[in-house]
Write a structure and sequence with these properties.
31% helix; FAD/NAD(P)-binding domain; five-stranded parallel sheet; disordered N terminus; seven-stranded mixed sheet; 3 domains; binds flavin-adenine dinucleotide; 439 residues; 12 helices
Length: 439
């Protein structure tokens, strides 16, 4: 979570983190930026190591201001911008050098021509997928990983590429940028020999082994598959809710209270949560640890949340409820660097009121990325993959699921990584002990 208001507090403020990294990575990005310009006239090929590289490539003016998230410093936003321009773009978010870009381009050209075989095919590119890849590669299973190409509008690297600083992943006491964390994960996967393909899986055939995993242009035949395609936190759209100029996403607005709630900008400040289900109740209760007060804003006059969750949340003296209401605008604080408040419309009377808050958290659900499975794995009512308790085994033997795509409760990078490890170990066990018996 980024905040202009934290700029005077080095080490604790994400903006500081962003400015420092911009200074320290300049020479690398200059090299890459030169290469990008060379490549641009033919097929625009973009390799991104950090958001800075995008800034260099784009000649970002915002760099001087050091305020909030600049348009070009955000890979997902750059990607959608370039896509709209209709360019052919190949983007490896975690490539760290011009050499990586060239390698990635040439391997992709060759890869598009043939069907590949592997012991383990991993689908996804978040912490779950890369942890599975690291374990599978070290076990000499020669994994192939499809990292996706703007799958669900998220860049390779997953949900963490949409946030600024991650402060709760072990091993980084000063925090680490989400993009950088995923960059490191990808490097580690590759270092042990994972073959990474920047393509989105569009179909699978789990009816027989080897399993078939297809993209628009290729097929991988795999003895086992790990699905780690994650989920997308739903966001609401109204003036001021977005990224970039005039928007307060990551500058007071978030979709993850557990991830961002402890940030200094929210301490002892009034906060709001939008939603009416269990998540909204849980997030509101969680935020009372830090906030001066928490408002739960809900469109209806009854909550969807279970009675017990409602009781726990609504009996908390710090929580107030604003029913029959929706947020119609978010606006900035004094210097407009961070969220200052909300305009709220009563859907019954039409009256618009003002609510001064420093934080707004969407708790309106997640969508697991399971459509491409075509109903071949058992899903729960919300579309999450069902796994056998205590394992990552899905309803199809030899197919495993890890991370947010099978977890609607914890939804954290470290839990995703944990289940990624489990999936690789489960796959290894399956390949060594079970598959040979079944053959
Ligand atoms: C704004 C925000 C901030 C967060 N902050 C934190 C934090 O501070 N700490 C924390 O622990 N957690 C945080 N989280 C939660 C954390 O990001 C997730 O729990 C974690 O990323 C889940 O990892 P995953 O591996 O399951 O999948 P994801 O990170 O969801 O990644 C899945 C990837 O798979 C790719 N994919 C999807 N479909 C396909 C397909 N068909 N073919 C190929 N690829 C595909 C997607 O492009 C995506 O990149 C945050 C989440 C958000 C949204």
């Amino acid at each position: 979570m980024d905040s202009g208001s934290q700029r005077k507090e080095p080490r604790s403020g994400p903006s500081f983190d962003k400015r420092v990294s911009r200074k320290t990575t300049t020479s690398r990005s200059n090299t890459l930026s030169g290469m990008l310009k060379l490549l641009a006239p033919k097929n625009l090929a973009v390799g991104i190591g950090t958001p800075l590289i995008l800034s260099e490539f784009a000649g970002d003016n915002n760099r001087r201001s050091g305020v909030g998230i600049s348009f070009w410093s955000h890979p997902n936003r750059l990607l959608s911008h370039l896509r709209k321009a209709g360019s052919f773009i190949r983007l490896g978010v975690a490539s760290n050098s011009a050499v990586d870009v060239a390698a990635s381009l040439s391997s992709s050209a060759a890869d598009n021509l043939s069907t590949l075989n592997t012991k383990v095919c991993i689908i996804g590119s978040g912490p779950a997928a890369h942890t599975a890849a690291i374990y599978a590669a070290r076990a000499e299973l020669n994994p192939i990983l499809f990292e996706g190409w703007m799958a669900n509008d998220i860049a390779p690297g997953g949900q963490l590429t949409t946030t600024t600083k991650v402060e709760n992943f072990p091993g980084f006491p000063g925090g680490i940028k989400g993009v950088e964390l995923m960059d490191r994960c990808k490097n580690q996967s590759q270092q042990f020999g994972t073959k990474i393909l920047t393509q989105t899986v569009t179909a699978v055939d789990f009816s027989a082994t080897p399993f078939k995993v297809s993209t628009d242009s290729r097929v991988v035949l795999a003895d086992s598959v790990i699905v780690a395609t994650g989920a997308v936190a739903k966001r609401l759209s109204f003036p001021g809710s977005g990224e970039g100029k005039g928007g307060f996403w990551s500058r007071g607005i978030s979709a993850c209270a557990v991830c961002d709630g402890a940030a200094p900008i929210f301490r002892d400040k009034p906060l709001a949560v939008i939603g009416g289900g269990d998540s909204a109740m849980e997030e509101a209760t969680f935020l009372t640890k830090y906030a001066s007060e928490v408002f739960v804003i809900h469109r209806r006059d009854v909550f969807r949340a279970s009675k017990i969750m409602q009781k726990r949340a609504l009996s908390n003296p710090k929580i107030s409820v604003i029913k029959n209401s929706e947020v119609v605008q978010a606006y900035g604080d004094g210097d407009k660097r961070a969220l200052g408040g909300l305009k709220i419309k009563n859907v019954v009377t039409g009256d618009v009121s003002d609510l001064k808050v420093s934080g707004l958290f969407f708790a309106v659900g997640h969508e697991p990325a399971t459509k491409f499975l075509g109903g071949q794995l058992e899903l729960d009512v919300d579309g999450y993959i069902v796994t056998k308790p205590g394992t990552t085994q899905t309803s199809v033997r030899g197919v495993f699921a890890a991370g947010d795509v099978q977890d609607k409760k914890y939804r954290q990078a470290v839990t995703a990584a944990g289940t990624g490890c489990m999936a690789a170990l489960d796959a290894e066990h399956y390949l060594q002990e079970i598959a040979p018996l079944e053959a």
